Every structure is written in structure tokens, then in C-alpha cells.
Amino acid sequence: MGLFSWMFSWLGGGEPSSPSQPTTDRGQQPDPQHSPTPPADHGPDRTSRSTTPPRQRPRIRRFPPKRNPRLNVRSHDQQHRRNRKKASFLEVTGASPYRFARFGSQTGRYLDFSRDGDDARLRDRGLPVFHTPEELAEWLGLTLNKLAWLVHRFSNGRPDSVDHAHYHFTWRKKRSGGVRLIESPKQTLKEAQVKILREILDRVPTHPAAHGFVAGRSVLTNAKSHVGQGIVVKFDLTNFYTTVSYSRVVAIFRTLGYAREAAIWLGLLTTNAVPGNMPFDRQKLYSILPYWRRHLPQGAPTSPALANLSAYHLDARLTGMARAFGADYTRYADDLTISGPETLSYALRTLIPLVEQIIRRERFQSNRSKRQVLRAHQRQVIAGVVVNVKPNVSRANLDRLKATLTNCVRMGPSTQNRDQVEDFQAHLRGRIAHVLQLNPARGEQLLAIFHRIDWRR
């Protein structure tokens, strides 16, 4: 009977009444000599846990772990971010604090987004300091109304039609299939973007693994890290520029230290959303979708720098992962390359899924159709540069360029501009400069043919 009573009380049923056990009044303790005893050798005594009234049991309250500010080296930055978040939602009673301030429809008050900047951080980095649209317009040398016109302030951030847009739109076919939209800014917007590039973005360092559109780096510096490697793994990012959204661009300017109001206007100046009557290929209906939301326009001078900054965490994570495998990592625009010794091939089943996972986590998209694994006995080409023995130009591209230049001498350059390039002379000169950088001897031969071309034909 003792075992049954102990199990019944442990399950929460209390102690059953027994004819041999005297009944007691409510609140009166039973006689100890009649109380059942728990069996021996059946684990710890659980009787005390069950007989405690529920209201007397201690409640377990869970609190977040406390951090010692003396031991937390980032406590100052965290406190500053909290203060910026609180100040970014400051409501102002009365008149608007500045022109084009946002109005809170639920509270009936204006929202002041100009007080949460970090001027000290901006000055330390040598960046211009401004908080409101008036100050930004003055820095750009524009009137406030013209600045509002550039960002389509009065049409919900999107142009009403192609004629009212501040970009020239051109559809171009990709070599791998599909089409790409080139968005070239018009003169007024281009001047504003160039000023933002020269005086803000160019002063922000990019990750060492990024070699595209960075001063002092090129396809040559990108290729040198992978010369003579036993195995080369190439990845490609799909729609690199359009993947970078407006919110990510605003976050970049916020990270630099700009107030929310200034970051919003800078983000509007450097991103674009196509108008509703934008023409596109009817056979490729979904080609317009990546350009519908606000994105980095391919063709704007600020887009390469902002794309590199948005991929900073991607470069940092892939660099650390490559080092863990004993490999090297670089990125040239949307081309990602990881190379290492021949023993790296044994880890490909682990390395490739990890790279794909990191790309997705950083909100980019990988083009699996362009992923390649190149070994030492194959021709290893990275961003148009052969890296098997030394950085060099592929023989096919070299022969193709030489044939084009020779035909320009014989039949005139107008007969060779099949893609209708706007400045064909500068286009050929740039291709020769690429060869000169990698193979000076062959580049001089091509340059001699170039000087024989009669550009009047």
C-alpha cells in the first residue's frame, strides 16, 4: 500500500484515504505514525515536492542575460544605435521641422528623421555632413525643388512615364541568353551621382577581396591570387545590381553615419524604379520584373561602388571560409572565384554547398548554370584572364581582336561595328589596353594595327 500511495501522490492525486488511516480535519496534519512512508531504493524522495501547495511553489522567471558594460567592448556602439533608433522616431508638435518632412497620419504630428546622424563618424571619415533635404540640395548645388524633382518626390518615387524618367533605357542581349536593361542617368542626375561617388563612396574602403571597380585593383590583381592553382571553382551572381534593393542602399548610408532623412534622399538619388509604360520583349515577359522595384541601375556611376559595399559581408564570410579550406577567394563584380591546391577537390562536396548557402544568406542569387570547376589540365579563365601559368589573354580572344582590327584597316571601321557600339573607336582602344595590361608584347602589335585605321571610312 505504501508504494501505491507514493505513486498516487507523486502524480498529483494527493494521499488516498484508507480505513486504517484516521481522517483529519481540513488544515490538520495527520498523525506521523499513520502516514505512509515512501519505499526505499526508488530514487530521491519526491513526497516533499508534491505536498507543497501550488501557491507556495517558487515561480521560475527567466530574464535575458545581463552584460557587463566594462567587459563589453561594443557597449558604446550598441548604446549609440539605441539612441539613434529612439531619436529617429521623434515626433514634433506644430509646424514642419524642415521641408518635405514626413507626416504621421496616425498621430497627426510631423516625424523628424534628421537628428539621429553621427557627425563625429562622418568627420572622421572625411565625409560631408548634412541632415535635411535643404542641406543636401545645397551640397549638390541644386535647388530643393529640383532635388525633389530628381527623386520623383511628387509621383511616389516612380516616374509617370519613360519620357518623365531621369534615365535612358536600353535593352541588351546577354551572351548566355536573356536580356539586360542598361539604365544610363541623364545629365543632371549624373552630375549629382558623380559628386556622391567622388566625395562619399570613393572614401569608403571596400573589402580586400573585391577587385572590380576599385581604385588600384583590376582583372590582373584579381587573377594573380589564382595563378598556378591545382583547382579553380567559379561562381556567378544572377542580377547582381538589381538584387541590391533600395532599403540596402539606405542602410549603407546609415552605416556611414548619415541621419535617416539624409540616407533616404541619398538612396533615392542612387536607385531607380522603371515607369509603368516601360517597353520590354513580349516573348520574355518576366525580364521586366527585377527592375520593377527600386534597385541599383546598371549604368549609373554610383552603382558599382554601392554594389561592392553591399557585398562586404559576403566577401568577409567567403574569405574566412576559403581560408578554413586552405584556399583563396576573390570577387570581380559578380564573378566569385575560389582556388587552391589539388587536395581541395576532396572538399568540394562540402565547400560548394557552403558557398551557395552563404550567397543565399547574404540575399544574393547564384547562377548555377555558370558554376564551373576547372582543374590544372584545363584552361582556367577568370574574368577573361587565363591563369594556368601566368596571367594572359586567351588565344581565341586575341585572334578575334586582331581580325577585327585588320578588317577595319582593309574595309573601314563602319563595316565591323556590328553591335552598333556608340563610340567604336574608344571600344577598340579599351580592348587593346586590356591586352597591353596582360601581354605587353602582343598588345603593342595590336596597337600598331589600330593606328593604321582610317576612321573616316
Biggest sheet details: 4 strands, antiparallel
| Rg estimate, integer Å | 34 Å
What is the global morphology? globular
Kindly report how far apart the N and C termini lie. 114 Å
Q: Which range does the strand content fall in?
A: 5-15%
Which percent range fits the helix content? 25-40%
Structural class: alpha+beta
Number of E-state strands: 12
Please characterize this protein's 3D structure:
Helix content is 38%, strand content 11%. The chain is built from 17 helices and 12 strands. The model is unreliable at 14-44, 46-50 and 62-76 (pLDDT under 50).
Strand and helix layout:
Elements: H1 2-10, H2 47-51, H3 75-88, E1 90-92, E2 102-104, E3 109-112, H4 119-124, H5 133-140, H6 144-150, E4 167-173, E5 179-185, H7 187-199, H8 219-224, E6 231-236, H9 240-243, H10 246-256, H11 260-270, H12 303-310, H13 312-324, E7 328-332, E8 335-340, H14 348-361, E9 372-375, E10 381-382, E11 385-386, E12 392-393, H15 395-411, H16 424-438, H17 440-450
Antiparallel strand pairs: 1-3, 2-3, 4-5, 6-8, 6-9, 7-8, 10-11, 11-12
In short:
This protein is an alpha+beta fold. It has helices at 2-10, 47-51, 75-88, 119-124, 133-140, 144-150, 187-199, 219-224, 240-243, 246-256, 260-270, 303-310, 312-324, 348-361, 395-411, 424-438, 440-450; strands at residues 90-92, 102-104, 109-112, 167-173, 179-185, 231-236, 328-332, 335-340, 372-375, 381-382, 385-386, 392-393.
